[in-house]
TrEMBL record, chains A, B:
Domain Pyruvate carboxyltransferase: 18-287
Domain of life of the source: Bacteria
GO biological process: ketone body biosynthetic process; L-leucine catabolic process
PANTHER family listed in its UniProt record: HYDROXYMETHYLGLUTARYL-COA LYASE
Keywords of the record: Lyase, Metal-binding
Lineage, top ranks: Bacteria, Bacillati, Actinomycetota, Actinomycetes, Micrococcales
UniProt key word Metal-binding: yes
Gene Ontology molecular function, alphabetical: hydroxymethylglutaryl-CoA lyase activity; metal ion binding
PROSITE patterns for this protein: PYR_CT (PS50991)
Name of the molecule in the record: Hydroxymethylglutaryl-CoA lyase
Entries under Pfam families matching the protein: HMGL-like
Assigned protein family: Belongs to the HMG-CoA lyase family.
Length: 314, 314
């Protein structure tokens, strides 16, 4: 027998409830070698919602040649019908053409994907940081006009595989410019997973001082150096209540060397439920979903909770 | 290129310096299927010391039939000579016979291994918790008489695979009885890795209220549910300055189902050096040591930092 749930011992320094922003269907599947059929993607999203995840990024309207894994974005949304729409089902849009496709599909929320560093902006968007903000301006303006909720990702906030350490001031500057376009939420990405706890504190403090409070910030950690959960808890202690995670620990970044998977949603849920923080998630259902998805992908889940619980059924 | 060291951003809520209590040669190798030759164990310990680890648990004087992996305890210490002795080179002793062998070998420090739960005490020591404390009394008394430094492990502090949740009061009671025997340091073991951050806080607060302050406590987390680093940082925020870790993430517990490896020393060092906490460790040397040891064991290291750094040499 293993323990199926953590002993509940509330942590006084954490929020009472947080929102998990599930990125598995987009950030996760985009980085899997196996191309998953649209029907499986739609079923994955339905199961995630069934397990209690309220906010799910469903797909990405990038050009199919960039990310063949998500070339079926429109088809996935068609299969989902109303379950794929509304303000809690954002889709990634890289530019105005992506926004057009998202609007055609009838979505209620979009996310843009910026970079804190020049090198990654060039590699990922073929633009300077300043040019990318210019490119995003009409995307955000038109999305807002259409009544959509808008999120701005900032990648490479804690380190860059080509540039090394990234100054906190540089991240604040890019974040401010993107939020000034009118975005509703910022997501701070540690794309290569190098950040540590004091760094998280300093960045959140600096953003707050620049007028971007924790109530508008989500955090997005990768576990490349084993720091994702510890950094997430530090962010929650600073008042952040939105956490990006990927069910089963799927994902990574195809353009960044040595990037491995996102924080696994199950490992996050174990930490939070133990600490008395509500998430709305049913952990058993989520683990079942990861086991099912691992079967579709033909390999075991990297989530430690999934391995611990699925490896020893009662 | 990957980043070889984290960006240094001091965390104001952590101690300036901590002591890593390295358990790889004992807790790690005891749980590997491969039986490593004594020469390799001695070389492993020498390399760990060379990488800056000041406190290293070298081996265990349990009966060879219990743990064949460490049947060569005396030989390892002979090979190490003075490098294996002194107050910073504890050995595990399960009982008086083990202490006799440790004294013969000339060690300067020993550790006893108690349990917070009756089921694990019975399975691991073939005794009740009360009987095990009685058994340890003469071990600690004689060790102190001989001038040795003494540590008391308490296992199953956060959950037990047979009993489930473990009441904090029960852990405090066992800890108090063991420390009352005259031990210098307590090590709180989350043997099956189920604990979470609020639970860590509550246990440390309860121990403090019972007269066992953070200055006499070490923490020992396993990463079975992905919680080890986050829980360790919580303990450090409560004033703990001794952390058990296993280089390369070696280890587990052969008597506890679903227990996986200890917190990897490298992942801990990444977190601490990033946060400006001194450890005395040279991370590059430690990673080299893990890569070498993984070669001896014929399998890759489970440490995420080792995989990130060793997978992408500059």
């Amino acid at each position: 027998m293993s323990m199926r749930a953590p002993q509940r011992e509330p942590a006084s320094d954490l929020p009472q409830r947080i929102t998990i922003y599930e990125v598995g269907p987009r950030d996760g599947l985009q980085n899997e070698k196996t191309v998953v059929p649209a029907e499986v993607k739609a079923e994955f999203i339905r199961r995630l919602a069934g397990a209690g995840l309220e906010t799910i990024e469903t797909t990405s309207f990038v050009p199919p040649s960039w990310v063949p894994q998500l070339a079926d974005a429109s088809e996935v949304l068609q299969l989902l019908g109303d379950d794929g729409l509304g303000p809690r089902r954002p889709v990634l849009v890289p530019n105005e053409r992506g926004l057009d496709r998202a609007l055609e599909a009838g979505v209620g929320a979009v996310a843009i994907f910026g970079s804190a560093t020049e090198t990654f902006a060039r590699k990922n968007l073929n633009r300077t940081v300043a040019e990318s903000v210019e490119m995003f301006a009409p995307v955000v303006a038109r999305a807002r006009e259409a009544g959509l909720w808008v999120r701005a990702y900032v990648s490479m906030c804690f380190g860059d595989p080509w540039e090394g350490p990234v100054p906190v001031e540089q991240v604040v500057e890019v974040s401010r410019r993107l939020m000034d376009l009118g975005c509703d939420q910022l997501s701070l990405g540690d794309t290569i997973g190098v950040g540590t706890t004091g760094h998280v504190s300093r960045l959140l403090d600096a953003l707050d001082a620049a007028g971007i409070g924790a109530d508008r910030v989500g955090v997005h950690f990768h576990d490349t150096y084993g720091q994702a959960l510890a950094n997430t808890l530090t962010a929650l202690r600073h008042g952040v209540t939105v956490v990006d995670a990927s069910t089963g620990g799927l994902g990574g970044c195809p353009y960044a060397k040595s990037a491995t998977g996102n924080l696994a949603t199950e490992d996050l849920v174990w930490a939070l439920h133990g600490a008395g923080v509500e998430t709305g998630v049913d952990l058993e259902s989520l683990v079942e979903t990861s086991v099912w998805m691992a079967g579709q992908l033909g390999r075991p889940s990297p989530s430690r909770v999934v391995r611990a619980l699925a490896g020893s059924p009662e």
